[in-house]
Amino acid sequence: MSITDDAWCTTTPKRHLSGDDHGSALKSVGTALDVLECFAVDTELGVSDIARRLGVAKSTAHRLLTTLVTRGFIEQDHHTGLYRLGLHLFELGQLVQARNEMRHVALPVLRHVHQATGHTVNFGVPDGPDVVFVERLHNRDGLRILSHWGRRLPSHTTSSGKVIAAFNAEAYAARVASGFPPRVTGTVRTHADWERVVSQARHQGYAVSHSESFEGTTSVAVPVLYRKLAVASVSVFGPSESIDPDVERLVPLLTAASRRVSKSLGA
């Protein structure tokens, strides 16, 4: 199975600054952040690439990149002249992960699920219309279906997104507002289908996705509830031929794991 770095979500609308930032310093800050987001999919880009994507002059793009290079957010390959994300972003990202309380609480539980199943285990949290996987333990045989880039996915393409939306009205509405862009053959494509799969997840207490984020894969997820609100999910993911026959065994295991995380959170 071949999975590429296209795993990254490219459908999420940009987050706009509040208020009127036209002609102000805030607009420059927003544009600089837009520069960083250009690298969510592409490893390296040139000045012309950035200028075209942002709809700005090459001189403007160059000034923005130069400033970001100075601060360590972007670095330039002096042989090719192309730009890529800098190490300072890695440092900040590591701090975010290290300071994520829910991840710390969940990690021992995730390790238990990983040991018991051998499948890839994910811990996802809602972020607008998407799910961000803040922790991932890969399957034991070393076959990494998801690359490191697949940390954010549209919620309608994942079992985690569906089961979180079943118990989180804000997450449900955020996906409705963003629409349902198709990804692979099984992806939810309409509001009616979204309502159907979310209602099913709410009734069952878990969700299953078949070839909805990647062809030939299945994931099973249960919600982590805090005061009856889904704040995260615990899921397993892998080739359909490995996951599908195991769903009945996986659901109770995942449910017990999510309850342990919820209890640790004080729910």
Question: How is the secondary structure organized here?
Answer:
Layout: H1 25-37, H2 47-54, H3 58-70, E1 74-76, E2 83-85, H4 87-98, H5 101-117, E3 120-127, E4 130-137, E5 152-154, H6 159-166, H7 169-178, H8 191-204, E6 207-210, E7 217-226, E8 229-239, H9 240-243, H10 247-264
Antiparallel strand pairs: 1-2, 3-4, 3-8, 4-5, 6-7, 7-8
Helix pairs in contact: 1-3, 2-3, 5-10, 6-7, 6-8
Quick structural overview:
The chain is of the alpha+beta class and about 270 residues long. The protein has 2 domains: about 15-90, Arc Repressor Mutant, subunit A, CATH 1.10.10; about 100-265, Beta-Lactamase.
Secondary-structure class: alpha+beta
CATH class of the largest domain: Alpha Beta
Number of helices: 10
Form type: globular
Helix content: 40-55%
CATH topology of the largest domain, which one? Beta-Lactamase
From the alpha-carbon coordinates, what is the Rg to the nearest angstrom? 20 Å
Mean model confidence by pLDDT = 86
Number of self-contained structural domains: 2
Low-confidence stretches: 1-11, 16-20
End-to-end CA span: 40 Å
Largest sheet: 6 strands, antiparallel
Write down the secondary-structure element order.
Answer: HHHEEHHEEEHHHEEEHH
Number of E-state strands: 8
Strand content: 15-25%
Fourth-tier CATH superfamily name of the largest domain: GAF domain
Architecture (CATH level 2) name of the largest domain: 2-Layer Sandwich
Strand order of the largest sheet: 5-4-3-8-7-6
